[in-house]
Amino acid sequence: MNLPAIKAIYFNEMRRTGNTLLQSIASPVISTALYFVVFGAAIGSRIQNIDNVPYGVFIVPGLMMLSLLTQSISNASFGIFFPKFTGTIYEIMSAPISYLEIVIGFVGAAATKSFIIGTIILITANFFVDLEIAHPFWMMAFFILTCISFSLFGFIIGLWADNFEKLQLIPLLVITPLVFLGGSFYSVDMLPEFWQKVTLFNPVLYLISGFRWSFFEVSDVSVGISLLMILAFLAACLGMVWWMFKTGYKLKN
Amino acid sequence: MTKTTTVADPVISVKELSKTYKGGHQALKNINLDIQKGEILALLGPNGAGKTTLISTICGLVQPSAGSVTVGGYDIINDYKKTRGMIGLVPQELTLGAFDKVWNTIRFSRGLFGKSADESYLEKLLTDLSLIDKKNSLLMTLSGGMKRRVLIAKALAHEPDILFLDEPTAGVDVELRKDMWAIVEDLRQSGVTIILTTHYIEEAEEIADRVGVINAGELLLLEDKKVLMQKLGKKQLRIELREPCTTIPALLEKYDLLLSEDGLNLVYSYDTRSDDRTGITSLLTAINESGLVLKDIHTSQSSLEDIFIGLVNPLDSQESSSSASGATAP
Ligand SMILES: Nc1ncnc2c1ncn2[C@@H]1O[C@H](COP(=O)(O)OP(=O)(O)OP(=O)(O)O)[C@@H](O)[C@H]1O
Ligand SMILES: [Mg+2]
After folding, report:
1. Domain identity same for B99 and B203
2. B158 lies in which domain range?
3. Are both B251 and B178 inside the same structural domain?
4. How close A166 comes to chain B (CA, Å)?
5. CA dihedral sign of residues A33, A36, A38, A42
6. Rounded to whole angstroms, how far apart are CA atoms B29 and A179?
7. CATH number at residue B63
8. What does DSSP assign to residue B162?
9. Which of A1, A145, B22, B59 is deepest in the core (most CB within 10 A)?
10. Distance between CA B95 and CA B124 in Å, rounded?
11. Which residues surround ligand 2, an ion (CB under 5 A)?
């Protein structure tokens, strides 16, 4: 294991965020606060409890997931896209470092950032509502697994993208709709029956459902399936990255 | 440095290396090349010759299509960690992140190549490269020449045994070019093997021990610098006569002149690089004494291109020498 190399990449990535610290921390805090003002206080007060959970509290896990997914993807994709774009990737590709080590460095840093942002959101939420977490261990497990697997997914997008447009494409066109339609702000059984079936094809639903269960013990689908889905997603991403590196995909001529 | 092969194991050994890019362009054709420890090898060749491709392949940036490369006895694919750790690469383009600081970027490079932090070594490196006062500057605020030196610092940050410099002096002013040569010489003194690419024959002449000439993906020649320079150093003086002469006068015999068929031109070959005199003055005096009347004189020098052409098609080489300097007195 080339530990110094992993550390070099990891801390280099972390420092890159450090340079934009205010933006990294302020934006999740502000957007969370806005969601609480709009959905929690203004609209939420007119919405009845969902499964005995007040609406303002109910949306916390979904809100966290929304940020975790978008932040993980954008951080990780940008992290690997940027050196490709500037050409500085030559150094990494000529270094005595394995693909696994490269992935650990980049994805580790992106996942860490997402974890920090998620924690900030959780703390911010605490100022607005009373939060009790029923299963802290499972909450952490879903939290961390989400950070890692979606950072990995972002890393894949960063490897694949060869222009800024493509970099934005998937988060914008795929992830955001999936999160909004995955029950971040509602329970699936509030939908008409037909749409409930359709929603089951949305992988993000399982993520949010499992995460929400760890908070309130209420879920749309069973927790085991949620866990399985996220592990399957993680495995798929790992396989994809492995394939990309093995074939030198867009990295080597 | 004369016969270097087989004296010691080469530090880099390229065997039957070929590279065909995806589009179908063959950038390297069956390259065989041994590089000895501690030598400075200059790779000369025109644009698109395959110099960067060759370097990139050895450094692991380009996957070879056929053949093998060993560095320090290790295969570049199977033992890539070992081989890459020995190598530092300064790329042709000025590829640097804009928002990083000089100090951070060289620390990053050192770590990336598996070395633990060593502040004093890096400080010394920056001092040697006259970058120490730019230590905390953002990369985007540096001039092109400084960026080039930062790239060298990055390549040397992990104390490599082998340094690749891909056109280190492209777009660099005379002053900095001299600096660069001095840096290379210092590195050689410390035992680093250096491979550099260049378009300039003078550059190869100034610093290399051996010169390889690449054209269209083929290594046309690999020769001790001195030998090559002798070939390049040949100049020809063509003397146009006002009246044709049928035989070369006895007075001029010792100059080995060639007489053209029409008898109007005499050709004298000489070596500008020999320590002896060129013999032009005495030749001209002798011509005068022999009663021949000069109409014009031309000199021409074999250039790198001539060598290429000579190598590809030896029969043409005589004809194609380009005229390097013009005419004088009638
Ligand atoms: N990524 C690539 N894909 C396809 N062809 C390439 C690629 N890189 C280089 N080539 C081609 O391979 C040939 C050799 O290129 P290379 O960059 O090795 O030349 P070079 O000798 O370094 O030239 P220069 O002096 O201009 O730097 C060129 O014809 C070039 O167009
Ligand atoms: Mg080149």
Report:
1. yes
2. 12-229
3. no
4. 21
5. negative
6. 53
7. 3.40.50.300
8. E
9. B59
10. 23
11. B 51-52, 92
